[in-house]
């Protein structure tokens, strides 16, 4: 087990007052060891990661379950203590807590610490960090030119299921992981974070944070909202007559409401634009149904969508987000 430092007193909660001990082997801390965090731990073990995996979370029982499953090697009571002995911290908490967790890790970690996350929204997290003044770490938070050791990321993997009991070691194999580095991103941190996600089996793609949020509003956030709306329209009696179409369209409606409320609110502007596009497409289909006697317009819209769906291939082993 790794010997952990004591928690800092409240008066020094955002200042590093002493050098951190050298860690011979890589130490990764996972903050939030649920489905995603647990799958990261299991994926690292599957890939032959030779370091130590620390777990931080609010629920001691969850951490105990994560250790029992082998997703972490050691549970740590606070992020400050874990960050102080870590080489890399990956934050897997809900999106409305990620910025604060990243700032805390940077405030208490060693100089070489790299931090990444798995949040489904990027621009809001980076904006919150800028407001906190913590993106460059505690020693240089007042230096606008200082390199940032936080590399925002989003692995496109997940499930409607929650909890470490549903974690799987192959969840990230073959999946795209979007990185959103900026001109001030520290090159060493970017290199190590890139290697980290690659080790889990991800294919890396770099995007601007706003472009990430635009695309994900269409491909993930809007589908979750539509799934919930459709499932809410179907009564228990109607479900007796539901089959494959209902199953496929509403699977993600079973996801956690609080988690998804935070995601949708954090990406509200892009989601509103995606909703407008969706409404416009529905209006076009509806109007085309009234286009008698010709069916040309409806068939054009339908076949255009069908071809786009056929052009999309998806075959990694994990379940889609």
TrEMBL record:
<keyword id="KW-0472">Membrane</keyword>
<dbReference type="GO" id="GO:0006571">
    <property type="term" value="P:tyrosine biosynthetic process"/>
</dbReference>
<dbReference type="GO" id="GO:0004665">
    <property type="term" value="F:prephenate dehydrogenase (NADP+) activity"/>
</dbReference>
<dbReference type="InterPro" id="IPR003099">
    <property type="entry name" value="Prephen_DH"/>
</dbReference>
<feature type="transmembrane region" description="Helical">
    <location>
        <begin position="23"/>
        <end position="44"/>
    </location>
</feature>
<dbReference type="Pfam" id="PF20463">
    <property type="entry name" value="PDH_C"/>
</dbReference>
<keyword id="KW-0812">Transmembrane</keyword>
<dbReference type="InterPro" id="IPR008927">
    <property type="entry name" value="6-PGluconate_DH-like_C_sf"/>
</dbReference>
<protein>
    <submittedName>
        <fullName>Prephenate dehydrogenase</fullName>
    </submittedName>
</protein>
<keyword id="KW-1133">Transmembrane helix</keyword>
<dbReference type="GO" id="GO:0008977">
    <property type="term" value="F:prephenate dehydrogenase (NAD+) activity"/>
</dbReference>
<dbReference type="InterPro" id="IPR046826">
    <property type="entry name" value="PDH_N"/>
</dbReference>
<dbReference type="InterPro" id="IPR050812">
    <property type="entry name" value="Preph/Arog_dehydrog"/>
</dbReference>
<keyword id="KW-0560">Oxidoreductase</keyword>
<dbReference type="InterPro" id="IPR036291">
    <property type="entry name" value="NAD(P)-bd_dom_sf"/>
</dbReference>
<dbReference type="InterPro" id="IPR046825">
    <property type="entry name" value="PDH_C"/>
</dbReference>
<dbReference type="Pfam" id="PF02153">
    <property type="entry name" value="PDH_N"/>
</dbReference>
<dbReference type="GO" id="GO:0070403">
    <property type="term" value="F:NAD+ binding"/>
</dbReference>
<feature type="domain" description="Prephenate/arogenate dehydrogenase">
    <location>
        <begin position="26"/>
        <end position="320"/>
    </location>
</feature>
